[in-house]
Amino acid sequence: MSRTTDIFLTALAPAIWGSTYLVTTEALPDGYPVTLAALRALPAGLLLLTVTRCLPPRAWLGRTFLLGSFNFALFWVLLFVAAYRLPGGVAATLGAVQTMIVILMARGWLGTPIRAGAVAASAAGVLGVALLLIGPEARLDPVGVAAGLGGAASMAAGTVLSRKWQPPVSALSFTAWQLTAGGLILLPLALIVEPPLPPLTATNLAGLTWLGLVGAAATYVIWFRGVARIEPGAISMLSLMSPLTAVILGWAWLGQAPTPVQAVGAVIVLGSVWAGQRANRPSAAPAVAPIPAGVKPPA
């Protein structure tokens, strides 16, 4: 597939993740963030393991659990803490900072050059998300801010390390390993810090099914496939599609019509995603002039 096709396919994942807020608030019981995160990750991971029948070798266990922590366990817990302690717009804006963190981590861990255009696109994306989601009632809570920034750093680390550590298996198997590892980390934590879930209704089960099968299993296969093919800075910009989708769903499902400021923010987000793909495009290898016949190459 072409790079453009890979980008559009990978963008489907964060676009679908934008439904998480709506599903969580409208279809799931309130007050069980760690338990719900475990129920989202572990069944999806076990299902994919059943399909792939591919377990991580012993040499990959440490990396698998570290990636499962960064991409799922730590990230989802911090995300929920930030969402509970901050207005949704503030939490989402802090999460958007991960695009800048990815640029720095990719420089340190992958040797990727820092490009001015990529930094500018990332900064514009954060501004666009802020205009899209932050209202005049926004407040700052130190614990919530720390959780939001920690979640952004966790997602950034997971993205860059998933690019650095590519096992010789399919994206389906790689996703299965990480989801299962993340779920195994979350499950005992949920049993310790949260009370048992109440009896689940049909709506609750439908919400969990959506978040597990579609919002975790299917979308993360697409995401990790993209991580292996697209530059870290470029793929991190695609995550900005998530808050944009959340606003669109709030408008279509809950009747929350966007304001003119939000419309400007949406345009900036889309523009920054486009600019981020161009700025993070790998440089073409310099052309090497052919050696004329009869000329001996230098030693």
UniProtKB/TrEMBL annotation:
It is found in: Membrane. Keywords: Membrane, Transmembrane, Transmembrane helix. The keyword Transmembrane applies. GO terms for cellular component: membrane. It holds the Pfam family EamA. Its main location: membrane. It is a multi-pass membrane protein. The chain crosses the membrane at residues 32-52, 64-84, 90-110, 117-136, 142-162, 174-193, 205-223, 235-254, 260-276. Residues 7-133, 144-274 form the EamA domain. Belongs to the EamA transporter family. This is Membrane protein, drug/metabolite transporter (DMT) family protein. The lineage of its organism: Bacteria, Pseudomonadati, Pseudomonadota, Alphaproteobacteria, Rhodobacterales.
